[in-house]
Specification:
Length: 812
């Protein structure tokens, strides 16, 4: 049914939105420097929003450029010139009398960028009411990261949890897991089975070599993207097909390689692509293998799960990825994109979990097929219609082994092997329309839908020892077969009061239906009495249970160009996150101490979010300061509800239930700066960002757990005038955490929460660029002084010193 629905959605849009004949117009203008002097020979590229047309030209001796015979619509204008930063602007062609577009370039690398995620439409990051960070392919390659998760260590307002090449997850403004929405090409990677407290979706499910751009929106994204976008939204935009060619068909390809000495990490990706007037494609295959990594120099410090030579056990992973993308150009105003993704991750360890308790993922797989149809200028007011549909299956095996050796003659020992295979299938669609209502009013509106269907299979084998012939086998389940569906309608309006001031406001309505089915192997533990089951609200759960919920969210903000160089913005809005299948229905012994039960009557987590920013941009300096305050209510927590008595001397078993309890406030500020200086041999660019967080549990009056106080990333980069060579040195400073609750101190003594640390990194590279061939070499040395440390609130220690080598070979 999911595949049929996907095909029907793509087919139906041809009936709804086949375009009329295009009207042709022109874009013209002038490129100048900060002194208003013409920049001759600059390359200017104009590309339609949906990629059906890409044209290039060069400025003449007066800095002038012109594109003729362009269809109505929105164009992304990219300007590149030697000695200047790359600049990207969005320009809308709506009639034959479009005003000339003058573009001023800045020296060095102060690149202006365009975001799609922050507004669902193309807009300059300077013109958004929410803070957003953009990390492009070139920067990802220069950072030479082992995993995409490593990128979040150096962005403002973000940090990471977990270690290893696969399991690193992002945290935004102190929150992680399903309180951060992760998208892939605008479609959900999150699913409703993954729990909040114990784990979250791994962005390692997206192959690093396939990522073209990371867009990180800090602050609520609930109005545009719905549930889970509580702390922020991450959109992983994958590498696409080549641009359309007006004449002939051209083949090309890329080979990307990566090697890290620390964990003997290897990754390689080979892609073949081609493009013509009617069709473009990209096919890629990648392989990766990472062994256990090594910590820094411990100097006698003890660390569980780490050998005497600093090897971190159970941190390995390997996998492969296949990606096939095709794009069909339907006249000049429409495009259809089809994509297939197959990711296989194998033998994924959980760093340091060895010995008495060993946990790992024998496999974690992802299969996805998706399609997107875009068309522009259907009517005078309807400037774009986009329909996407996808089907995704995430299947993973989480296994753990508990081993307690015997102590004869009184204790025979304990051996328990548990294997849980979760199979979550998701199908969904998104219909978006962009409207131009007069000269000053733009409206984005649409509907979206997704449905997660999950079933678990679990096997538990118990005995006194692994070799014991008297093994007991159980096929019980801790979560019933269940599904969660969401249908939503959203609208966001942008109104330009003047050329300097615009207001932005949005509203969204969501309806959720969560359904637990009668499931063989799932039952309420007989350890609980009938009265206890009733008091916990679980009486009807084994026989099937339906839960319906609705949510209305909205936001309002403004962007004001106070001067030519200063932009002020502010936004206030409501956010929410719907409880997932795990939180409502999980009933079993958990990874925390005691017996954990779900709660079908949970309310959504919600928040009131306020952001205010000042952005400054000149020819020699770029900077921003953002203050935010987020007030949350109905946060979910596991709290003791009752206990199960046992015969002395055995202690009673505590029963914990997920409940809405916490009122919390997270506030802080984030700053970014970049200031290039031109020297005779190139550009020297100091840069950096600083983030401060303060979290308070208003319910208890104590500090909010898992909030790191302040982080600084600072560096200096040199690049030659022709942008062929670069050298980059940066330092990361995380301060000591002192505002923690008594509970955290008691239960998590080994996470390094009270320690601060400083790491140093250096990188450099060379780029050889020609019209038909590119080559890049990137070298890096991370944790330069081989420091032993742990990311705050992470049990496993971080990687020690590592030398990395990355290459990219491209034939166009």
């Amino acid at each position: 049914m999911a595949i049929k629905g996907f095909i029907f959605s793509i087919f139906a849009v041809f009936i709804l939105a086949y375009p009329a004949n295009a009207q042709t117009n022109a874009i013209k203008g002038r490129v100048v420097d900060s002194n208003q002097t013409a920049v001759a020979g600059a390359k200017v590229t104009a590309q339609t929003k949906i990629g059906t047309s890409t044209v290039q030209t060069q400025t003449n001796s007066n800095g002038e450029y012109e594109f003729n015979n362009l269809a109505d619509g929105e164009y992304k204008i990219t300007v590149e010139a030697v000695g200047f930063s790359r600049l990207v602007r969005v320009f809308r062609v709506v009639d034959k009398f479009s005003e000339p577009l003058q573009i001023q370039l800045s020296v060095g690398e102060m690149t202006e960028t365009v975001t799609i995620t922050a507004t669902r439409t193309q807009v300059s990051t300077d013109e958004t009411a929410v803070p957003v960070s953009i990390v492009g392919r070139d920067e990802i390659e220069r950072k030479a990261v082992s995993t995409i998760g490593d990128v979040f260590r150096s962005l403002p307002g973000t940090s990471t949890v977990n270690e290893g090449a696969f399991q690193v997850r992002p945290r935004i403004r102190g929150l992680d897991s399903n309180r951060v929405l992760v998208l892939v090409d605008g479609e959900r990677l999150n699913n409703s089975r993954t729990s909040t407290a114990q784990s979250g979706i791994e962005i390692g499910l997206v192959e690093a070599s396939q990522v073209e751009t990371l867009e990180v929106v800090r602050g609520s994204g609930s109005v545009l993207y719905g549930t889970d976008a509580l702390a922020g939204t991450i959109n992983i935009i994958t590498r696409d097909t080549p641009a359309r060619r007006e004449n002939g068909f051209r083949l090309g390809g890329t080979l990307d390689t990566f090697y890290s000495t620390n964990e003997n990490g290897r990754r390689g990706s080979l892609a073949v692509n081609g493009s013509g007037k009617l069709f473009a494609f990209r096919v890629s295959q990648s392989l990766d293998r990472f062994e256990n990594y090594f910590t820094g120099n411990r100097n006698g410090r003890i660390a569980d799960g780490v050998t005497s030579n600093n090897e971190v056990l159970n941190a390995q992973s390997h996998g492969r990825n296949t990606s096939v993308t095709g794009r069909f150009f339907l006249k000049d105003k429409s495009a259809l994109r089809l994509n297939y993704e197959r990711k296989r991750s194998l033998d994924v360890g959980t760093a340091t979990l060895v010995g008495t308790f060993n946990a790992y993922f024998p496999f974690s797989n992802r299969d996805k097929v998706s399609g997107r149809f875009d068309t522009v200028n259907l009517t005078k007011n309807l400037v774009r219609l986009s329909l996407s549909s996808f089907y995704q299956q995430q299947k993973r095996n989480f296994s753990n082994i508990v081993t307690v050796p015997p102590a004869p003659p009184f204790f025979p020992g304990v051996y328990q092997f548990s294997e849980t295979i979760t199979n979550t299938k998701t199908n969904g669609f998104d219909l978006q329309t962009d409207w131009k209502l007069g000269k000053r009013n733009s409206l984005t509106a649409g509907v979206s839908f997704f449905r997660d269907e999950n079933n678990d299979n679990r096997v538990i084998i118990s005995s006194s020892t692994a070799a014991s012939p008297n093994q007991r086998r159980s096929n019980s389940k801790s979560v019933p077969d269940a599904d969660l569906s969401n249908i939503a309608a959203f609208a966001q309006n942008e109104f330009k009061v003047t050329d300097r001031l615009k207001f932005v406001g949005g509203i969204r309505f969501d309806a959720f239906n969560t359904n637990a089915k009668p499931t063989t192997g799932f039952s309420i533990s007989p350890l609980l009495t009938a009265a206890q089951v009733q008091s916990l609200g679980l009486t009807d759960l084994p026989n099937g249970l339906k839960v319906n919920a609705k949510s209305v969210t909205g936001d309002f903000g403004f962007v004001f160009n106070a001067t030519k160089n200063v932009i002020l913005s502010s936004r206030i809005g409501r956010s929410f996150r719907s409880p997932n299948i795990f939180e409502r229905f999980f009933t079993d012994f958990g990874s925390t101490a005691g017996f954990v039960v779900g709660n079908p009557n949970l309310k959504p987590e919600s928040g009131i979010n306020f952001d205010s920013s000042v952005k400054f941009r000149s020819s020699k300096f770029v900077g921003s300061v953002t203050y935010f305050q987020n007030y949350f209510r109905d946060f979910l927590s596991n709290v003791p509800k009752l206990s199960i008595p046992r015969n002395p001397p055995l202690a009673a078993i505590p029963v914990l239930q997920t409940v809405n309890i916490t009122k919390a406030r997270i506030q802080g500020f984030e700053t970014e700066v970049e200031a290039p200086f031109r020297l005779s041999v190139g550009y020297l660019t100091p840069y950096g960002n600083y983030s401060y967080l303060r979290g308070d549990n208003i319910q208890s009056g104590k500090p909010l757990d898992f909030i790191s106080p302040s982080r600084t990333n600072a560096g200096i980069r040199w690049q030659n005038l022709a942008s062929n060579y670069f050298v980059d040195y940066n330092v990361r400073i995380v301060t000591k955490q002192t505002r923690i609750s008594d509970v955290t101190v008691r239960t998590d003594p080994l996470t390094g929460i009270q320690t601060g640390f400083v790491t140093h990194n250096i990188s450099g590279g060379y780029a050889f660029k020609r019209e038909s061939f590119n080559f890049k070499l990137n070298l890096g040395l991370s944790n330069l002084f081989d420091r032993f440390y742990k990311e705050q609130f992470v049990f496993a220690p971080a990687r020690g010193r590592s030398f990395t080598v990355g290459t990219s070979w491209e034939i166009k």
